[in-house]
């Protein structure tokens, strides 16, 4: 959720006079996300190693997922001052626009992550990307699709979409209002969203890896490492 | 006031951001298709603030949200028309500059 807020500031369209203050607040929010981004980067590298080896070890990724949940709590404690400053600097119209953008971010995230857990074959878009990137054969696509569906059925999610939505809704309603105190928010959706997104990614690569050739695994591992490097670049900014 | 009186709640939602507003008289039936900005557009687009609220130019209309619902201006307000033209000139200017 903090990421939705930080991203929304890129396109909020505030006037030039307040832009430096908004950019400083955005930078503070990005700083709050640094520990979780570093864990996500480590998770990508762990996945890359597992893919290259031919199997992604559950124990290694579970450790990273646990750390991600802890990092979300650290992020939650870090950001109230930035959010209160943001509320103070924005006009009522800008606050409403931000709230709408955060809700839109949630809708996009849900389409990409949570719906997949409920609908067989919803991973087809990602399969198409993987097929193009690795030149998968038709037989591989069939095996991998079955494997991803099976992994989804075998490991039901503990992710509570309604609870996350309700926390997100509580935040956006409060933020759009005249009076707002981020310290009064006792829980948010950061932890569940980050963990669910990461868990879904892990599950996908665990299901895919056994059906790839050595060369395809090497190419996919390289792709994951490049993505991890991108995370490092963002953290360094 | 040139705001559209038709809101999403009064329309028949077909899918996603597409809504159909149906109006019929004894002599003639009218079907008006209203298309509202999807979430990915809202998330990534920069609004123009008009009358204190964020408005978005999408598929030939200015849209804004109020009470959790999308509305659109039936007639384009002068200020928004000017902003749209400014943006277009800036965009075209940027592209001409790159081509040099």
Structure description:
The complex is a heterodimer of chains A (237) and B (100). With 237 residues, chain A is mainly alpha-helical. In chain A, 76% of the residues lie in helices and 0% in strands. Chain A is built from eleven helices and no strands. The mean pLDDT of chain A is 86. By secondary structure, chain B is α+β, with helices and mostly antiparallel strands. Chain B has one domain (8-99). Chain B has two helices and seven strands, in the order βββαββββα. Chain B has a four-stranded antiparallel sheet, with helices on one face. A three-stranded antiparallel sheet of chain B has the order 1-2-3, with no helix packed on it. Mean pLDDT of chain B is 73; it is low at 4-24.
In short:
Chain A is an all-alpha fold. Chain A is built from eleven helices and no strands. The radius of gyration of chain B is 16 Å and the shape is globular.
List the SSEs and their pairings.
The complex is a heterodimer of chains A (237) and B (100).
Chain A: H1 2-8, H2 19-32, H3 34-53, H4 58-78, H5 80-89, H6 92-112, H7 124-134, H8 138-154, H9 161-176, H10 190-208, H11 214-236
Helix pairs in contact in A: 1-2, 2-5, 3-4, 3-10, 3-11, 4-10, 6-9, 8-10
Chain B: E1 12-15, E2 18-24, E3 29-35, H1 39-44, E4 48-50, E5 53-58, E6 61-66, E7 69-72, H2 78-99
Antiparallel strand pairs in B: 1-2, 2-3, 4-5, 5-6, 6-7
Key terms for this structure?
heterodimer; A: 237 residues; mainly alpha; 0% strand; elongated; B: 100 residues; alpha+beta; four-stranded antiparallel β-sheet; three-stranded antiparallel β-sheet; globular
Shape of chain B: globular
Q: Helix content range of the residues of chain A, please?
A: over 70%
- Annotation, overall tally of beta strands of chain A: 0
Q: Largest interface, with Cβ-Cβ < 8 Å?
A: A-B, 19 and 14 residues
Query: What integer value in Å does the Rg of chain A equal?
Result: 19 Å
Strand content of chain B: 35-45%
Q: Average pLDDT of chain B, to the nearest integer? A: 73
Classify the helix fraction of chain B into a percent range. 25-40%
Order of helices and strands of chain B: EEEHEEEEH
| Rg of chain B, Å, rounded | 16 Å
Query: How many structural domains does the protein architecture of chain A include?
Result: 1
Tell me about the largest β-sheet of chain A. none
- Please give the alpha-carbon distance between the first and last residues of chain A: 20 Å
Q: What is the quaternary state of this protein?
A: heterodimer
Work out the number of β strands of chain B.
Answer: 7
- Mean pLDDT of chain A comes to 86
When the domains of chain B are counted, the total is 1
Category by helix and strand content of chain B: alpha+beta
Stretches of chain A where pLDDT is under 50 for at least 5 consecutive residues are: none
Class by helix and strand content of chain A? Answer: mainly alpha
> SSE string of chain A, helix = H, strand = E?
HHHHHHHHHHH
């Amino acid at each position: 959720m903090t990421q939705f807020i930080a991203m929304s500031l890129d396109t909020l369209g505030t006037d030039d006079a307040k832009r430096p203050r908004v950019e400083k607040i955005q930078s503070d929010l990005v700083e709050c996300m640094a520990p979780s981004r570093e864990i996500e980067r480590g998770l990508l590298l762990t996945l890359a190693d597992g893919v290259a080896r031919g199997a992604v070890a559950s124990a290694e990724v579970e450790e990273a997922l646990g750390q991600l949940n802890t990092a979300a709590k650290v992020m939650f404690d870090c950001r109230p001052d930035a959010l209160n400053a943001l509320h103070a600097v924005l006009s009522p119209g800008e606050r409403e626009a931000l709230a709408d953008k955060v809700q839109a971010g949630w809708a996009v995230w849900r389409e990409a992550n949570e719906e997949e857990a409920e609908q067989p074959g919803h991973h087809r878009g990602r399969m198409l990307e993987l097929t193009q990137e690795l030149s998968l054969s038709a037989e591989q696509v069939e095996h991998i699709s079955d494997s991803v569906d099976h992994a989804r059925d075998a490991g039901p999610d503990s992710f509570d979409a309604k609870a996350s939505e309700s926390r997100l809704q509580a935040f956006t309603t409060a933020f759009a209002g005249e009076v707002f105190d981020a310290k009064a928010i006792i829980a948010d959706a950061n932890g569940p969203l980050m963990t669910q997104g990461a868990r879904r990614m892990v599950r996908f690569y665990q299901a895919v890896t056994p059906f790839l050739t050595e060369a395809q695994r090497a190419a996919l591992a390289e792709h994951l490492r490049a993505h991890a490097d991108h995370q490092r670049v963002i953290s360094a900014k | 006031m040139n705001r559209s009186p038709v809101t999403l709640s009064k329309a028949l939602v077909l899918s996603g951001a597409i809504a159909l507003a149906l109006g019929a008289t004894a002599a003639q039936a009218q079907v008006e298709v209203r298309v509202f900005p999807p979430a990915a557009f809202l998330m990534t687009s920069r609004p123009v603030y008009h009358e204190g609220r964020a408005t978005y130019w999408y598929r030939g209309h200015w849209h804004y949200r109020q009470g959790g619902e999308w509305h659109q201006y039936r007639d384009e307000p002068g200020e928004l028309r000017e902003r749209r033209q400014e943006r277009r000139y800036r965009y075209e200017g940027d592209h001409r500059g790159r081509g040099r």
